[in-house]
Specification:
The radius of gyration is 21 Å and the shape is globular. It has 14 helices and five strands. The termini are far apart. The strands form two sheets. A three-stranded parallel beta sheet has the order 2-1-3, sandwiched between helices. Strands 4-5 form a two-stranded antiparallel sheet. By secondary structure, it is mainly α. Helix content is 55%, strand content 5%.
Length: 288
């Protein structure tokens, strides 16, 4: 029997425990490097950050540390559209999930998205559309069917591949409306277990009800995936409220701008203040 690679034996929980034996700074476990960069800008360097690679890995490694009775860490992850994070929270793990579905959604709700519209948009077009607030409210309404479908996909195990459909191609750019039927048809083609375009459309429009509506325990609403919102914002900035070329406002570009502009919010928001309080409590409990 062949032995495993070194990577197979490189458990994050083991590395964190060994690290803490010589460095007593509080530990923050995150999903990826971009989370680490943002939190460093917001909270400073006096914390040991450990990217886990994925949300599931971050949660499982946190569970391991919890089982080992290690009390010097906090795990920061996206809530997404399933109930996985809630299940780990119920086990009393030290989890501080981002508000809304994920970090990008949390920052978008906070007002950082409004700053992006003001910065990248056309002042005259923004005024003609009723101002930034009206534009954001329209984007919120547009993203709602996608949110309903994401949750329905989880509840019914359809296996829809949302990332395989470019949401931007399903927008009526003239009227800035989501072409819901076309979007459902494209999603339906991504999985053999899909219930059919008609059923997807019924969920997207609220004709069929979810077992449990996606919601943030901290109360931020509406609930959505940040990248879905940014895809719609990208389209809006190319005509509806701006004059940008699509290449200059790709969702990935807007996401990077959102993260750069969002560090101050992360630090000063109630979410950030609660996180800082947890970290200070860890520091006080683990003083050498």
């Amino acid at each position: 029997m062949k032995g495993g690679s070194l990577r197979d034996y490189d458990r994050l929980a083991d590395r964190i425990r060994l690290h803490h034996q010589v460095n007593k700074r509080p530990v923050v476990i995150v999903e990826g490097p971009s989370d680490e960069r943002l939190l460093k800008r917001a909270l400073g360097e006096d914390i040991s950050y450990f990217p886990a690679g994925t949300r599931d890995s971050a949660l499982m490694e946190s569970q391991t540390l919890h089982d080992w009775e290690q009390d010097y860490f906090v795990c920061i992850v996206d809530r997404d559209f399933d109930d996985v994070v809630a299940e780990f929270e119920a086990r009393q793990l030290a989890i501080h999930a981002y508000e809304n579905a994920d970090l990008e959604a949390m920052l978008s709700i906070s007002g950082v998205a409004a700053s992006l519209i003001a910065e990248f948009g056309s002042e005259s077009k923004i005024q003609a559309r009723g101002g930034v607030t009206q534009i954001i409210d329209k984007l919120y309404r547009m993203v709602e069917p996608v949110t309903l479908l994401r949750r329905a996909n989880v509840e019914n195990s359809w296996g829809l591949a949302f990332d395989a459909v470019d949401l931007r191609t399903k927008v009526d750019k003239k009227n800035m409306e989501l072409k819901v039927r076309s979007y459902c048809a494209a999603l339906n083609d991504t999985s053999d277990d899909s219930p059919g375009q008609a059923v997807l459309y019924q969920y997207a429009t609220g004709q069929l009800s979810l077992k449990k509506s996606p919601a943030c325990p901290r109360g931020t609403s509406p609930f959505f995936r940040g990248r879905d919102f940014l895809a719609l914002l990208s389209v809006a900035l190319c005509g509806y409220c701006g004059t940008k070329r699509s290449q200059s406002v790709e969702p990935e570009t807007l996401e990077a701008s959102l993260r750069l502009a969002g560090a101050d919010h992360v630090k000063t928001s109630s979410w950030g203040q609660d996180l800082l309080a947890s970290i200070m409590h860890i520091s006080a409990r683990n003083k050498p």
